[in-house]
Structure formats: structure tokens, C-alpha cells
Amino acid sequence: MNGGKPLTTREFHVLLHLLEERSVTRTAEALDLNQPYVSLVLKRLREATGDPILVRSGAKLVLTVRGEQMIAPLRDVLKGVDAIVGPPAQFDPTTATGEFRIASADCMEAIILPSLIARLQSAAPGVRVVVRAVDQAFDYAGALERDELDVVISNWPGAPQHLKTARLLSEEVVCLFGPEHPFAGQERITLQDYLAADHLAPVARSKADPGPIDSHLAEAGLKRDIRVMLPEFNLIPHMLMKGQLVFTSSANFARYQSSILPLSSRPAPAECGSLDFYLLWHERAQADARNTWLRQQVMAVARELKSI
């Protein structure tokens, strides 16, 4: 700029207003500035460009050709600067588009997802909801980091430290079984009865992570007899309809399945512990308005489940 001091962002804002208003007086009044300052900014731009920018035409000022050409790029530049240093954009769910990308442990799908998706469709009708399961091969932490996922709903602790975690709810553990099972005629299930039963369980995430139920039992020096393991969580209730298998689950899952199938449940022995459910997201999305709103919706659904 002819060796002069570069114009500041504030001065560029003044210049844009000046180019649009074509008046030093109106620009000063609109921006609550004094006229000598506005005139100084115009002088600096004239010196930097070698162009008068504004010239008198009778009783008014008009833009030179160079001045006219400056307006569009100046608007674009200032829009970009405002996006960088200005306040973060607000999220309006009523006008939002795009996708909410959610990964969920399959044990949570029947518990949280129906209410969550209904809530999202009502509040953000223009946004599509994409849900995928979390299986052994899925790198959910990497997907969050690469912006391929927004949040993860899980029932395992010990998430990677670079992920943000919030506890959604802690649930009572119950035994779910079919109408032919001996437990159907008992008021309570003793630890001895529980350990002697034939158990059905989902396939473990890994050898190092057998799942929350077996981890709690191991801490007490106990081990149940798992006779059948299934990869698809939602097949489990149907497998309980005949035979002598028992499935250990959260109270809300058992309540839901018992409402659609002739299944029964009883509280599991205390040694089975409780089931804790978590919401995970990446640090990179911590302050993002869209992600924050989505997390609030998941937590609101979890609060409703706690009150059931």
C-alpha cells in the first residue's frame, strides 16, 4: 500500500459503509464515529490505491469506476473475516438442513432411538437422521475425529481421552426370559440360580472387553454360563421365546421387549452391577452450535427415560 500502514479490519468496515452510503456524514452517523476519522480512512484508501474513490458530481458524491469495483470483493472479504473472528453461528433447527449422524450401541436402539428420532424430526424437520451400529470393526473414535459422525451413544466406559463424555443414565439390571422358563414362577432370582442358568448374550466387543455384565461378575470372582452368543442384539428377545435361556439387560430394554412379546423379567442379582450409558463426541465439536443442540436432544431423551 505504497509503503503505508495496512488498513485495519475496522477501517475496511468503515470503507464499505462509505462506498455504499457515498457520504462521509451519513457514514459517521451510522457507525457512531466522528467525521474527521471517516475522512482520514478515505484519505488512506486514496493514498493506497492512487484513485480518488469518491468524486463530487454537482451537490453529491459519486463513486469512481475503481470505487464501484471495490464493493463486492470488500463485502466478501469482510464476510470471511466476520466468520473467523465474529461470534459463532447460531443453530436454528427449524431451518436447518443436512444430516445428524449418530452411532449407537445396538442395546440402546430400542430404548433411546425411537424417542430421539421423533424429537429430531419434530424440531428439525429439514434434517435427515443417519444411524449406524457400533460393531467390533467400527472405529467410532476415528469417525468422530474425521467428522464422519456427530455423536455416539454407548454402554461402555473407558472411551479414548480425546473424546468428550457425558453419562446419560444408569439403569437397573434385570433378567429377561420367556414364558417357559422356571424363573417365570419365582419372585426373585438368587445368585446361585443365576449362575446355574443357561445364558444368552451378545457377541463381546473384544476379548479385552467382555461387556459390562461379565466385567461386574469378574470383579466379584464370578462367571456365568453363556450358552448362546448372537451378533444381532435385536434377535435376542425372539430367542427367549422358547427354551431355557436367560438374557441380562437394562430395565428399560426389558420393559420395551415385554410390551411387544410375552416375556417376563426379574431383578438380577446385585453382583451384576448396573448398566451405565454414555454420550460421546469429539473435542473438535465441543463449541459447535449444531453439535451442542444435538447433544441436548439426546440428553433430554435420557432424562425422560430416567423418569419412567
From TrEMBL:
Residues 7-64 form the HTH lysR-type domain. PANTHER family: HTH-TYPE TRANSCRIPTIONAL REGULATOR LEUO-RELATED, TRANSCRIPTIONAL REGULATORY PROTEIN. This is Transcriptional regulator, LysR family. Keywords: DNA-binding, Transcription, Transcription regulation. Coiled coil: none annotated. GO terms for molecular function: DNA binding; DNA-binding transcription factor activity. Pfam families: HTH_1, LysR_substrate. Belongs to the LysR transcriptional regulatory family. Gene3D superfamilies: Periplasmic binding protein-like II (3.40.190.10), Winged helix-like DNA-binding domain superfamily/Winged helix DNA-binding domain (1.10.10.10). InterPro entries: LysR-type_TF (IPR050389), LysR_HTH_N (IPR000847), LysR_subst-bd (IPR005119), WH-like_DNA-bd_sf (IPR036388), WH_DNA-bd_sf (IPR036390). The keyword DNA-binding applies.
